[in-house]
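$ ./design --mode recover --in tokens.txt
reading tokens...
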């Protein structure tokens, strides 16, 4: 089996877009403090570059979740692999995720976090595949909308590989 990765969004394009989103977030949260909740593992690569472009005070926490079900049936639950270390009560929370696909994971995660009484919750995703959406999720900041392709790089994996690619690529598997 041979795996080829073709560039979909270049490193320069990703960097420039993250810079612009950081600027937008800094303006939207002017005078406030932001609590970033990064979704492991994929979101961490995006988060690191994003927060360097945010000028308001920022704190960080990390969460790891996975969806129950086989991807075609929504069970209405998520499995918490790692919960947050700190309380989010009264905080302006920004969830940072790598990609919004069916929306199941983030839908359930946002519901869960709302029960913990944050002041606000907004969602920032590097990539969005709107054609794949099964559950509507309100998303506040999107890096790029992409077609229904399986992508890797910038935190996104194919069997845990390619997360470290500095660009967004499309996997092309030749058997
Ligand atoms: P969903 O929105 O609940 O379907 O799940 C989103 C998760 O699916 C993401 O956090 C990724 O881990 C994974 N995912 C979806 N599309 C891709 C892709 O194109 N490449 C790599 N991972 C993906
Ligand atoms: Mg993920």
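writing sequence...
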């Amino acid at each position: 089996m041979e795996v080829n990765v073709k560039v979909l969004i270049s490193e320069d394009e990703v960097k420039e877009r993250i810079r612009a989103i950081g600027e937008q977030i800094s303006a939207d949260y002017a005078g406030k403090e932001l609590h970033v909740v990064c979704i492991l593992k994929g979101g961490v690569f995006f988060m690191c570059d994003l927060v360097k472009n945010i000028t308001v005070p920022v704190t960080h926490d990390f969460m790891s979740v996975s969806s129950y079900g086989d991807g075609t049936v929504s069970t209405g639950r998520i499995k918490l692999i790692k919960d947050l270390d700190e309380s989010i009560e009264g905080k302006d929370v920004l969830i940072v995720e790598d990609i919004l696909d069916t929306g199941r994971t983030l839908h359930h995660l946002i519901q869960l976090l709302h029960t913990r009484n944050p002041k606000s919750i907004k969602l920032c995703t590097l990539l969005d595949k709107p054609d794949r959406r099964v559950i509507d999720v309100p998303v506040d900041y999107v890096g790029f909308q992409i077609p229904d392709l399986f992508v890797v790089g910038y935190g996104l994996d194919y069997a845990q590989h390619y997360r470290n690619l500095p660009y967004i690529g499309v996997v092309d598997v030749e058997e």
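exit 0
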